[in-house]
Write a structure and sequence with these properties.
This is Aminoglycoside phosphotransferase domain-containing protein. The protein has 410 residues and is of the alpha+beta class. The chain has helices at residues 3-18, 29-38, 45-65, 77-88, 146-159, 192-195, 201-219, 243-261, 267-279, 342-348, 357-378, 384-404; strands at residues 91-99, 109-117, 124-131, 167-171, 180-185, 190-191, 290-292, 301-304, 316-320, 327-329. The strands form 3 sheets. The chain has a 5-stranded antiparallel beta sheet with strand order 1-2-3-5-4.
Length: 410
């Protein structure tokens, strides 16, 4: 048995104690020995539940106490005026409306503000990203805070040519509105998901080539440790140097939260399949943490449509949006790699799947993605958009579970 395999489960046991309520956890020497010998596969449901209950309960309580998708997080014209006045001076707000269609995974509310500011002759549209002022959570996986969102934003703008709309302002004081927010320009164009049907086959391939090259640039940004970005990019108190350790902890947290919400999923089976994957070191082939967009979809990518009907004119990607879930991890986790086109892979410049077992790893990543969306959709008010997200998440989770039953890990 290698020293590395001994070390990872022991570190995992240490993390569970330090990141949960220690008064509720008793981890015997025999349990540690058992985990060290055969890994997470030997953990029974009840043993692991003790280690997770406290953190999950705290996370759910915090989410219920401060729900960013609740009705209290609105934006009135007078509030929009105050925000713009603080950045641009005098202005006239023409309209404010909430945007519901920025992808399937958005942990914050999004508003579009149309206004004419001082010394401007035409109206400008801005995007306001509203985030909870209290994003405290005892779970390791959580959406980025306003500060870490700004750090990721600045990092991408300074180290890549990926188009991001100008970030005009971030404010965590809650002095103008009762939440933190970031104010950006609204990009030109339309979402790629909407543009697809208006583009020729050649133009769609050109977009995918460009998209692949942008993802390659993003994944060229490296880090020393895995996990969620910190507010200023510094090392966290308890950094993780194992992607298998980080990802399986993230996944376990999503599973326990789903179980606590009463989701109808075969949790025992899932944990058994996960134990098998860990035993085969399925996630342990990632050595260098890369910056991952994670939940970015075609709804989060804006494209300028060609001005003419000529197929020779190349459409332009005008912006990437929604960096709320960016993290340091495995590039295969990208949601855009769920079903990539040949042109996207060509633009990326490297094969995404090299070995058959990586297809199984991609299934686990898709399951995790679905559980994240399921969690966020469960916190929303009922409505057409919320119900659509719930159905999408339920369908993709069900599909993954059917395939994971017999998915090879070798």
């Amino acid at each position: 048995m290698s020293f590395k395999w001994l070390k990872l489960p022991l570190n995992r046991a240490k993390i569970r104690i330090s990141r949960s309520a220690t008064s509720r956890i008793t981890l015997s020497l025999s349990a540690v020995t058992l985990v060290s010998t055969i890994g997470l596969a030997s953990y029974s449901h009840s043993q692991r539940k003790i280690a997770m209950d406290s953190s999950v309960e705290s996370s759910i309580n915090a989410q219920n106490a401060m729900n960013i998708t609740g009705t209290s997080f609105g934006l009135s014209p007078s509030q929009a005026w105050s925000i713009l006045e603080g950045r641009f001076g005098r202005n006239v707000v023409h309209s404010v409306h909430e945007v519901k269609a920025y992808g399937y995974s958005l942990p914050c509310k999004v508003f579009e503000i149309c206004a004419t500011c001082e010394d401007a002759s035409t109206a400008t549209t801005y995007i306001l990203w509203a985030m909870s002022p209290d994003q405290s959570s005892t779970t390791e996986y959580k959406p980025n805070t306003l500060a870490s969102f700004a750090f990721v934003y600045d990092t991408i703008r300074s180290k890549t040519s990926i188009p991001l709309p100008p970030l005009y302002l971030t404010d965590s004081t809650c002095s103008r509105v009762p939440y933190c927010y970031a104010l950006t320009a609204r990009p030109s164009g339309v979402p790629l998901s909407e543009a697809r049907g208006q583009l020729s086959k050649r133009q769609n391939a050109l977009i995918d080539l460009r998209l692949g090259s942008y993802l390659q640039q993003l994944h060229a940004i490296e880090n020393d440790w895995f996990g969620m970005p910190t507010e200023v990019g510094g090392e966290p108190d308890d950094p993780s140097y194992s992607w298998q350790e980080s990802f399986t902890l993230f996944l376990e947290e999503m599973l326990y939260e789903a179980e606590a919400r009463g989701e109808d999923l075969p949790f025992s089976d899932i944990r058994g399949w996960l134990s098998r994957a860990i035993g085969f070191y399925l996630f342990d082939d990632v050595e260098v943490p890369k910056l991952i967009w994670f939940t970015g979809r075609e709804e989060d990518i804006y494209v300028d449509l060609p001005s003419s009907s000529s197929e020779d004119e190349e459409p332009r990607i005008s912006a990437f949006l929604n960096l709320c879930h960016a993290l340091w991890g495995d590039p295969l986790l990208e949601s855009l790699f769920y079903a990539p086109s040949p042109a996207l892979i060509e633009g990326y410049g490297a094969p995404i799947i090299t070995f058959p077992r990586q297809n199984t790893k991609r299934l686990w990543y898709t399951l995790f993605w679905g559980l994240v969306v399921m969690k966020e959709a469960a916190a929303e008010e009922s409505g057409d958009d919320s119900d659509q997200r719930k159905r999408w998440a339920a369908d993709i989770v069900k599909t993954c579970l059917e395939k994971l039953k017999d998915a090879p890990c070798y």
